[in-house]
Specification:
262 residues, 5-stranded mixed beta barrel, single chain, 9 strands, 4-stranded antiparallel beta sheet, 7 helices, alpha+beta
């Protein structure tokens, strides 16, 4: 994500630059977190025995690590390199590159509005981040269809944001995301949530769409819809999320959808 200032969460994937390598592990800086320092112990560099650590990690290298633990009071961040597979690495690096591009687009918007970048974030950027989780996701959504964006936000900056998105973001497909928050206090609440998820999966199959539902961490589940057109993706999102929400609410639980894009 853009302009992160705090600490990462446990199990989060983070982009790092290797600062120094010792026999016992490697010190890295977290690119997305103001270059805060983290440590990868030699046992977490790779699976199996490590004879020469620099065969696996070296100074100046860009790596993707998984957060094992954070002690914000001491500023300690423990990381693992071996816990990240190649697919996760490629996906995370692409996400990081997209966010770097999005930050450049924010600079263009700020310049066109004759305000500082910090003022642009204060004026609308932070609100956009809160609504879409990632800046690039907002730019992609707007490039695909600006109608929803216009219904959510108002101000002189909106048209500038839309123009910059259309000029600089090219879509080969449309991918939208949502976070389902599912709760049930019933003794068999886990089963009720599972049944609701099955309803969503069935709705996805019936819609014949590319849909994935991923567990994020209680009570959050990520729904990813991929389609050729934005309206098609939106229609499928509505069908799938409604199926899950209606089923869980009917079973006495609580359910809601928070929109994301990427």
């Amino acid at each position: 994500m853009s302009r992160v200032r705090g600490f990462p969460e446990d199990s989060e994937l983070v982009v790092c630059t290797v600062k120094s390598v010792k026999n016992f592990g490697a010190f890295v800086t977290l690119d997305e977190y103001d270059d805060k320092e983290g440590f990868v112990h030699v046992r977490d560099v790779t699976t199996g025995w490590v004879k020469y650590i620099r065969d696996f990690i070296r100074e100046g290298q860009k790596v993707v690590c998984k957060v094992l633990g954070v002690d914000s009071s001491k500023g300690h961040i423990d990381l693992s390199l071996k816990s990240v597979n190649e697919h996760q690495k490629r996906e995370k690096i692409q996400q990081w590159k997209n966010e770097k591009k999005a930050e450049k687009l924010m600079e263009i918007i700020a310049e066109r509005m004759s305000v500082s970048v910090d003022d642009a974030y204060d004026l609308f950027g932070n609100d956009v981040l809160e609504a879409y989780e990632t800046l690039y996701g907002a730019f992609e959504t707007v490039a695909a269809s600006a109608d929803e964006f216009k219904s959510e936000f108002s101000g002189d900056w909106v048209d500038v944001f839309i123009n910059v998105a259309v000029e600089n973001v090219t879509l080969s497909y449309v991918q939208i995301e949502g976070i389902l928050e599912l709760r049930s206090s019933a003794p068999d609440g886990v089963e009720r949530i599972r049944d609701a998820m099955k309803k969503g999966e069935k709705a996805a199959k019936d819609a014949d769409a590319n849909v994935t539902i991923q567990y994020v961490g209680a009570p959050r589940y990520r729904v990813v819809i991929t389609a050729d057109e934005y309206k098609e993706a939106e229609d499928v999102m509505k069908i799938v999320s409604s199926a899950v929400i209606d089923e869980l609410v009917k079973a006495g639980g609580e359910a809601s959808l928070k929109r994301e894009s990427k």
